């Protein structure tokens, strides 16, 4: 991979994905961070259905921090992993309320210390919630990194993030994240990718 080839790939993605925007519904960084934590191993569409009810009842960190576990569990059960997610978002809300006066911090180090928040979630909050350059890498971007030659097949997700950042201009990280994410979600899927008419075929190493 090099910067010229990466630019060609991103430019083609811009032609394919005409509206590279988040698919999670949120009105502020608090709603965003909760929605991203809930989105693990489920779809954004399902999360949006659940958070509509959740945020109506618990619109901020203080109200969610005082929520009854069983009530939260019942609301988010359709998303899967409800036990862990309910525990995490209540603990997350408590930490925000007690340590940050209910305000979501806007630095990576503070974000990754929050309950249930990992590297990807922290990066999403920075890029999407605060417009701070970050390159969140999820399973879609990791798959794309391997198929398009950003990394080798045996390299890990941290390497993918490092290489994306190396070959994509910093001011384009957030937009590129959405381009790769949406292309991976709807075109270059894990199973049965739409290879036949793919404009990125000349760059792709997929041999399925």
From TrEMBL:
One of its GO terms (biological process) is base-excision repair, AP site formation. Binds 1 [4Fe-4S] cluster. Its EC number is 4.2.99.18. It catalyses: 2'-deoxyribonucleotide-(2'-deoxyribose 5'-phosphate)-2'-deoxyribonucleotide-DNA = a 3'-end 2'-deoxyribonucleotide-(2,3-dehydro-2,3-deoxyribose 5'-phosphate)-DNA + a 5'-end 5'-phospho-2'-deoxyribonucleoside-DNA + H(+). [4Fe-4S] cluster binds at residues 188, 195, 198, 204. PROSITE patterns: ENDONUCLEASE_III_1, ENDONUCLEASE_III_2. It is an enzyme of class 4 (lyase). HAMAP family: Nth. GO terms for molecular function: 4 iron, 4 sulfur cluster binding; class I DNA-(apurinic or apyrimidinic site) endonuclease activity; DNA binding; DNA N-glycosylase activity; metal ion binding. DNA repair enzyme that has both DNA N-glycosylase activity and AP-lyase activity. The DNA N-glycosylase activity releases various damaged pyrimidines from DNA by cleaving the N-glycosidic bond, leaving an AP (apurinic/apyrimidinic) site. The AP-lyase activity cleaves the phosphodiester bond 3' to the AP site by a beta-elimination, leaving a 3'-terminal unsaturated sugar and a product with a terminal 5'-phosphate. This is Endonuclease III. Belongs to the Nth/MutY family. Keywords: 4Fe-4S, DNA damage, DNA repair, DNA-binding, Endonuclease, Glycosidase, Hydrolase, Iron, Iron-sulfur, Lyase, Metal-binding, Nuclease. The gene is nth. InterPro entries: DNA_glycosylase, Endonuclease-III-like_CS2, Endouclease-III_FeS-bd_BS, HhH-GPD_domain, HhH_base_excis_C, HhH_motif, Nth. It comes from Anaeroplasma bactoclasticum. It holds the Pfam family HHH. Residues 38-186 form the HhH-GPD domain. Its cofactor is [4Fe-4S] cluster.
């Amino acid at each position: 991979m090099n910067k010229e080839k990466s630019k060609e790939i991103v430019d083609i993605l811009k032609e394919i994905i005409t509206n590279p925007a988040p698919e999670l519904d949120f009105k502020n960084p608090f709603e965003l961070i909760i929605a991203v934590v809930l989105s693990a191993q489920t779809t954004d569409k399902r999360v949006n259905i659940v958070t509509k009810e959740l945020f109506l009842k618990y619109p901020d960190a203080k109200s969610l921090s005082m929520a009854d576990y069983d009530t939260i569990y019942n609301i988010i059960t359709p998303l899967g992993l409800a036990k862990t997610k309910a525990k995490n978002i209540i603990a997350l809300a408590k930490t925000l309320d007690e340590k940050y006066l209910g305000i979501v911090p806007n630095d990576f180090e503070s974000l990754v210390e929050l309950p249930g928040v990992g590297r990807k979630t922290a990066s999403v909050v920075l890029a999407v919630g605060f417009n701070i350059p970050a390159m969140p890498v999820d399973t879609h971007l990791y798959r794309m990194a391997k198929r398009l030659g950003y990394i080798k097949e045996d390299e890990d997700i941290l390497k993918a993030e490092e290489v994306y950042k190396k070959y994509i201009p910093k001011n384009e990280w957030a937009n590129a994240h959405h381009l790769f994410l949406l292309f991976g979600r709807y075109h270059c899927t894990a199973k049965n990718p739409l290879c036949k008419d793919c404009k990125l075929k000349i760059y792709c190493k997929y041999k399925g």
